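Input record (one chain):
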Amino acid sequence: MRTTIKIRLLIGLVFSLSAASAFADGWDPISTAGATNGIADTRHNMTVSYSSGGHVMDGFRNDYGGVCIYCHTPHGANKQIQAPLWNRTVSYGNYMIYDKPTTLMRPVDQPGPSSLTCLSCHDGTIAIDSVLNMPFAGRSPDNSGANNNELGTSNTAFLDSWASNPAGLATANNHLALGFEFGGNPGPGPSTPGCAHCHNGSPNGFTVPVPDFRAFMLGTDLRNEHPVGITFPDTYTPATDFNEPDVKLPGKMAFFDTNGNSYADKDEVRLYDSGNGYKVECASCHDPHGVESGGVGTGTRFSPSFLRVNNGIAGSHAGTTGIVSHGASALCLTCHTK
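The corresponding structure, as predicted from the sequence alone:
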């Protein structure tokens, strides 16, 4: 199976992209996503419509023909998570969490809803096309007689009911997860390869570069990641080493209102309250739709890695052209007083 997948992807790359293709600056030098003008021009566009070679992926995930459908649905959303009209399978949430409480002095819990949404792709256990409602008549659970799982693993039989992708490549049994191959941590399973089969930083024999996705493959062991599900301090003195959020909305969120408009703008760090106090979650620092580095409405390129605030960009680094720096450690110092 390894050889078959590698050959299929290699053939698609060779014939769909020329070696002379100019890769636009992105999160790294070889990304074809321009990271401007909305989510459609970012790597979170699973149709890969920003690239002339996007159809190469049609053998490895269902191409639903739209950007939003991979995460959201107007009807029949996932009832197992408090997330806006969520259309994806989510994990049971059994993660190994940051285990240094003496350095934090705050309770650490399992990731909350505003992390589980991100982890439904980034923990590598769920297929990237694992939606509850497919587009078009006859593709929703109510019409097809089949359904996907709201929790746990993907129902591949339901995903296989997607007839074909625009390139005519069937995806049966090839619904890849954002993980390492053949069950390695964080792999999608014992018999199905993950995206890292090719997106692993090695040449793989390809004639064109393949983006390296390993930094985005978090797995289920989160002990070496910035803690999520951790309660933010509720007292603020020189001894706490934390800044106090400007606006607090109990039961919803707190945020650092840098422009003073009393609204949680995309480029402002926030904390989420799901009932047990304000907590740091993935979406505290990241916006999955992209944030203009020069400020909302400026049309500038997005901050790297979907960050709300970036930690300073050296202009000489490849792939950073057009990104506005927010200063050294700007994101960290939003919350931390050092």
